[in-house]
Amino acid sequence: MKNKTDKPNAQLVPNDNPNYLGFFEKHADVIASLIIIVTMLMGMFLFNMRVDEGGDDSTYITRAIDLFYNGTYPTYQGPLYPIFLAMFVGLFGANLLYLKFTSLALMLVSQFLFYRMLKGHVNIRLVLGVMGLMSINSWFLFFGSMTYSEALFMVVEYAFLALLLRFENKDDNGKATRGILGSLSPAALAVVAFLIRTVGLGFSIVGVAYLCIRKKYAKALMFLGSVIVLSLVWTGIRTVVWGDIKSDNKQLESLMQVHPYDESQGLETISGYAGRLVDNSNLYLSKHMMRMLGFRKAQDRGTNPLVTIILYSLFFFGAYKAWKKNRCLLLLAITSFVMLGLTFVVLQSLWDQARLIIPYFAIFLMIVLYGIFCLLKIVAGKKAHLVFMLVVILSGLMTFAQSVEKMDFHVLRENFSGDILYGYTPDWYNYLSICKEVYAQLPEGSYVACRKPNMARIYSGGHKFYGIYNFNTEDADELVDDLRNHKVTHVILASLRRDPLVPNGQVINTIHRYMNFINQKYPKTFIPYGMCGDENSEPAYLFAVDYDYVDAMRQGMADNNGGDANE
User: Which helix (H) or strand (E) holds 518?
Assistant: First the structure.
């Protein structure tokens, strides 16, 4: 049942006739189906068989493997996506191709839900236009072949928004029990969103804010109460199955720090959070958003505060018009405001990853485009729809050009033919090649340390690696003892680029520094064992750790000093 404030056909049509039925209105279902098919085809053309260098996708897979085979509860990041993947690990094993295809399937489901959620509530031309832009957008389709949580999160997001609209509009005849039961489904999805990604907590805020703005205060209380009860139910189930989980808030705690990997810098201040909002707004709107829309080159890295201000202005103008005319667009505006606001305030600007706003890209774009059209109505009158269509078509053409540029059928063919590392830059190819073969060449019982242990595990057939992400001391004895305590026998030293696009010799040097501090005191601790690549092709090295040498050096120091060598 439509709400009286919904005017889906009152805008974006040539003659402003609310009852106008043109080509798009008559054939909306067919066009939407074709767009979803285009999404599938473009997803296949842009399919990436490799594990992403960012590392989170391999982390999700390894946690799914540990959950299925060992019953280990996935902590730090949201647990629900690894739980989802674990079902497919159970069906197909840790098959990278099958796991990646689940993401493409989820992307198609999200497109379908997006259409069903908005059909009949928002002008179909706007809906189909946004769907069309997304169907050819390489930034969006990237997540159709990556085991990141974005695709699942979008499915839950659109289902949540649809159920919230239905709950708000449903007449419960004054019966509290019926209202509470109606609140359970959107509340359950709000809890599920939080269990997929920590920022999913914002859906609970969205639900309460929207219902209060709509003056449905009793339903807002019902929804909030249901979220609290269902959260407690989940906590009880988790405790029964996995026991007391101590590290549930580890990721949240890292976000409250000035630097996520350096506790010594302390907790963030109020002014620090304000600074994050400004910095992230510029990064994600003037850089990432404009690249996604095709108006900036994919390689452009600069920010433009003026563009940020313009996008914010168009968004808030569109949100204001939505508040006056259409409750569904109003909900999308509230969702964009809350979710992007939380993202910009909570995340440190050093993350700077387009994936963090991908789940809200379509709904934010809906409001911005709506704001553009409403503004054009004031400026251009009846010609507004023509100018609007030109803007959308221009964005589509530039977005499609970016996508075509990223297609590489040769790499796809090589990957499907068996060379699963083909397409990586030399630094990653050499690193993952040595990870892939290392355990086959080493004695049984060996344990290898490296910088990206989860990626190494995926390509080594499931062998575990010890990850060295950071360290808080320069003391050689503490560092070497840490390796010994974790039973590390070998270390991989890679040449991973600090800037992925620039092979200038500047590399991620965490392990270089780690080994250097040890070498300064014990110069023969690491024995060269193997190498992949050559000196001119960003090689990866394998070293054995000689603890006997370290012990002999310590004993000699102790004998010379007449005491403990570690004093």
Answer: helix 510-521
